[in-house]
Amino acid sequence: MMERVDVLVVGAGPGGMSAALWCRGLGLDVCLIERAPVAGGQMRAIAERMDNVPGQPSAYGGTLSDRIFQQVVDAGVRCRFGVETSSIDLHGLRWTLGTEDAVEARAIVLATGTRRRTLGLADESAWLGRGLAYNIGSRASELTGRDVVIVGGGDDAFEHARQSMSVARTVTIVHRGTSFAAREALQAPVRACGNVSFRVAHTLDALVGGTHVERARISSNGRVEEIPAQQVFVCIGPVPNTDTLQGIALDRAGYIIVDALQCTSCKDVYAVGDVCSPVAPTIASAFGHGATAAKCIVARRSALRAPAPSHREPGSDSLTVSGLTVPARIGVYPSERHREQTLTFDVSFDIDARSVAPSDALEGTVDYAAVARLIVDLVGARRFNLIETVADEVATQLLARFASPAVSVRVRKTDVPSDGASASVEVRRTRAKE
């Protein structure tokens, strides 16, 4: 069965539900799909009351998830749960399930969120539920009298320690770094607790036990030891759920690259929530992303319906971003491989300034802050031999990312191959006519 909708939202966390609610409120037909059996995403896994969600003092994650989902249902959003969300054609704007079930949309909102990062141990999955977990959930009372090991050094690790230390016999925080990234407000009560110890510059290499974890094997500078552990929590950060997404621009950590309007590199595809928020993965941010994406979808549909100006050739103006200097690992000469280098970029987009100006909006022009982010992420992700390769890849990505008929990229590199020398190259890429 083929179903056609205005907007397909993928993921029913706070960002996805916000996008679905806003789209529906703006008069769009919306289908929301979710791999899990219930809505809420990681918000549902928050066991303690939250005090930082505006307008929702002391709300529990599960309760807030249910409230928002009820709003979504009441608004008339069609929802499907427990379905595979990986079969998505971002360029064809279609999701398929099996051979006969499909949903086609005019726009897609990706709200696939993140998952917990694993340690990468060979037998890690076998210990799950047998003394290994990635979230304490509501099970703090089950830790009474146990030796708890927590791997990590950020907010999440110290929150787990705070919930564990009042009931556990011992709590050991194992961190590969020499300092902690957690907020001081979270560190202070944990450091003051007498049954909490710290193993910095250590890694957890193995779990030891029979039917249940009994000990954790940790090491530092070649010295290996085993410490008591009946419960191990892994709190080493998130991983974006983008593994199955094809043909979309990602940063070096795998997060979806978006501009200020939540637009991705794929036409009519947006991203909201944690999957595009490596810096601020919060419920409040996800809510705002959903509203922004919905507003942009409606604005673009209105722009498509508006008659094009006939008095002017499109793309007859240009917008230039000049002098963007980016750290780079580049060069084939031995002297270039062991020193810091920079590349300087000048980027010019063809635009139609007159058609853009009346709305004073980003639609039809370029978010040059997003241009800078894309270049920084692309150049920082790998080592290049030639600036010609850099220029070509940057131009190709920018043309895919922004609605411009053509883009020119000039790259300059100094001190090549010795002090005082320089090299530069400029490429121009034009969008193929559809």
How would you describe this structure in keywords?
434 residues; alpha/beta; FAD/NAD(P)-binding domain; GTP Cyclohydrolase I, domain 2; 3 domains; seven-stranded mixed beta sheet; five-stranded parallel beta sheet; 9 helices; 24% helix; globular
Explain how this protein is built:
The chain is an alpha/beta fold and 434 residues long. Helix content is 24%, strand content 29%. The chain has helices at residues 14-25, 61-75, 124-127, 155-164, 184-191, 283-305, 353-356, 368-380, 387-401, and strands spanning 2-10, 30-34, 78-81, 88-89, 94-97, 101-110, 114-116, 132-133, 147-151, 170-175, 196-200, 203-209, 213-220, 223-228, 231-234, 238-240, 269-271, 317-328, 341-351, 406-414, 422-430. Strands 1, 2, 3, 4, 5, 6 and 17 form a seven-stranded mixed β-sheet that branches. It has a five-stranded parallel β-sheet with strand order 8-15-9-10-11, with helices on one face. It has a four-stranded antiparallel β-sheet with strand order 18-19-20-21, with helices on one face. Helix 1 packs parallel to helix 6 and helix 8 crosses helix 9. It starts with a strand and ends with a strand. The model is unreliable at 308-312 (pLDDT under 50).
